[in-house]
Amino acid sequence: MRIKDKVVLITGSGSGIGKETALLFAREGGKLVVADVNDKAGEETAEEIRKNGGDAFFAHLDVSNREQVKQVVKDTISKYGRIDVLINNAGIIQDALVVKMTEEQWDRVININLKGPFNCIQGVVEQMITQGSGVIINISSVVALYGNVGQTNYAATKSGLIGITKTLGKELGRKGIRVNAVAPGFIYTPMTASIPEKILDLMKEKTPLKRLGKPEDVANTLLFLSSDEASFINGAVISVDGGLIM
Ligand code: NAP
User: Fold this and answer.
1) What is the pLDDT of residue 190?
2) Given this model, what pLDDT does residue 104 score?
């Protein structure tokens, strides 16, 4: 087991990449905090883990709400006594061309995708410093490195997460905390389900491996980065995109 007894908090783990990651980490011995704004989806993930013999609890969490973050961290420490891994996975899209993007669309995406990870990092960091160890992984995107029409807000948040990753890689490294980012390409999840098949085919064509990603492609990378096998990887941005960006 590659992360036996490590306590892992994954935001947005009721669905898609976060859910697949929670299920994989539980199979590898982790104790999972399934945190999601979607209660039904989050409860289902935690229940699936427990049914398969794993250890998990669901915590309602809107990452943009600092009080809720504090509560989830408190509940995690009172149940498991520590926090070893934080995966800032929760994210949304609210696409529009820049001429049409509303202030609400801009603010909502910034609040959830960028301020949310900041809130969660501040929530866990003191505990990790006290422990003298920890792993933080921010889910960025190929869009941070490549841009994408209609995603000014989303690209800003995903690029911002790379800046946070590099800054905290420097700031927290000396405390025994590793901070990395993963930049997935186009992955089949509920988030991409609304993208027209024509566009997805185009992305497939542009990808040297000639396929889109699966949630487990990202989950496997997150498992490696969370494990002690990655103990000298810090401040890195790992692309999981089939070579779409080189
Ligand atoms: P997903 O299937 O939509 O899952 C995201 C989960 O996060 C959902 O359960 C969602 O709940 C929850 N969530 C939304 N707002 C939240 C909030 N404020 N607080 C806590 N949880 C919240 O998405 P995904 O495709 O797995 O994406 C996961 C991450 O990977 C995101 O950060 C995304 O930007 C990034 N990413 C995805 C792709 C891709 O191709 N799929 C590519 C690059 C990067 P609801 O269902 O209620 O909204």
Assistant:
1) 93
2) 98
Strand order in the sheet with 85-88: 55-60, 31-36, 7-11, 85-88, 134-139, 177-184, 237-240
pTM of the model: 0.99
Ligand 1 centroid from CA 190, angstroms: 8
Report in angstroms the alpha-carbon separations of 72 from 12, 31, 61, 79, 128: 13, 14, 7, 10, 15
Q: What is the CATH number of the domain that holds 103?
A: 3.40.50.720
pLDDT reading at 195 higher than 90: no
Domain of residue 17 covers 7-237
- CB of 91 closer than 6 A to ligand 1? yes
Task: Report if residue 243 sits inside a domain.
Answer: no
Q: Which candidate in 80, 146, 154, 188 is catalytic?
A: 154
The count of domains in the chain is 1
